[in-house]
């Protein structure tokens, strides 16, 4: 297969990044991964990709990483909402200033295209179903604020220096490869507990409505955003477009596992919006993306992954 182009994936040893790297390699891209392994794993990186251990804050390493690269997929970030409430400064240093170092290095090396893993946490958290890209912004936690701040930087670099920037606001991403230690993300936390026959922790009595999107659909959206990009700065929601109460997702997991779960109610969790459902009409219209894996099939694949890897996590 002829090589399409060389791309850089920051955070390519993480959950979403490693799935993206595999799919890029499958599609014939030459892929360089830059990851400091603070939350990613070297073993998750596809063997066909080149790997460079380091940080986007390393001014000496970035020019090397960007050499002969035509586009950047930027996923390197500190990404747990709960921890952002405890140490917000780290989130702004990593997610905002780290991104500025990357944009500056791109500007100086002439790399003009970036696709960014942003977040639905950029929105204001008020009851609005579904959420469109034009709806009010106003993050209710430091993680969301750090992600939105970098979107503004991308817009500025696009207008000032001619970069082509696409920010994809991910809703709740799940699937194989999510091996974050001490995870607070619901589905991996639930599956690890359920498969170990331990009590399954949940918040708000499961009365939050969420939009879950399978990781391969997310990676495909990033690839399409790069392939069908155009001048300027654009923002798209990435979700299934369907909301489900968290308690009903637990019941679906219980049905797929075939045994009753013991649930442990942890009460309320500060910084959580009650509703988060994506309006995906804009990306469907402009670049032709829509999700292909429904929740039941995605959960089945995710359960199979954790069954195979539980003892290693």
UniProtKB/TrEMBL annotation:
It comes from the Bacteria. InterPro entries: Epimerase_deHydtase, NAD(P)-bd_dom_sf. Residues 7-239 form the NAD-dependent epimerase/dehydratase domain. Belongs to the NAD(P)-dependent epimerase/dehydratase family. This is NAD-dependent epimerase/dehydratase domain-containing protein. It comes from Candidatus Taylorbacteria bacterium RIFCSPHIGHO2_02_49_25.
């Amino acid at each position: 297969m002829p090589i399409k182009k060389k791309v850089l994936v920051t955070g390519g040893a993480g959950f979403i990044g490693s799935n993206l790297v595999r799919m890029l390699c499958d599609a014939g891209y030459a892929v360089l991964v830059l990851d400091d392994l603070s939350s990613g794993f070297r073993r998750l990186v596809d063997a066909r990709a080149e790997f460079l251990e380091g940080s986007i804050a390393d001014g000496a390493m970035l020019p090397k990483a960007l050499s002969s690269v035509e586009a950047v997929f930027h996923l390197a970030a500190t990404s747990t909402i709960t921890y952002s409430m405890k140490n917000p400064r780290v989130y702004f240093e990593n997610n905002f200033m780290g991104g500025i170092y990357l944009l500056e290095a791109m500007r100086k090396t002439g790399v003009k295209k970036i696709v960014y893993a942003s977040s639905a946490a950029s929105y204001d958290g008020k009851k609005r179903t579904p959420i469109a890209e034009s709806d009010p912004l106003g993050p209710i936690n430091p993680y969301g604020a750090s992600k939105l701040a970098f979107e503004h930087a991308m817009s500025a670099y696009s207008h000032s220096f001619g970069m082509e920037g696409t920010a994809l606001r991910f809703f709740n991403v799940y699937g194989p490869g999510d091996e974050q230690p001490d995870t607070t993300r619901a589905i991996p936390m639930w599956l690890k507990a359920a498969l170990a026959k331990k009590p399954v922790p949940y918040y708000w009595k499961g009365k939050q409505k969420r939009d879950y999107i399978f990781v391969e659909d997310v990676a495909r959206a990033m690839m399409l955003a790069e392939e069908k990009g155009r001048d300027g700065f654009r923002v798209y929601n990435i979700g299934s477009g369907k909301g489900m109460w968290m308690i009903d997702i637990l019941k679906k997991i219980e049905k797929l596992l075939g045994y009753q779960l013991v649930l442990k109610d942890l009460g309320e969790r500060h910084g959580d919006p009650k509703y988060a459902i994506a309006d995906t009409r804009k990306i469907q219209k402009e670049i032709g993306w829509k999700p292909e894996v429904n929740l039941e099939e995605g959960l089945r694949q995710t359960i199979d992954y954790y069954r195979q890897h539980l003892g290693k996590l």
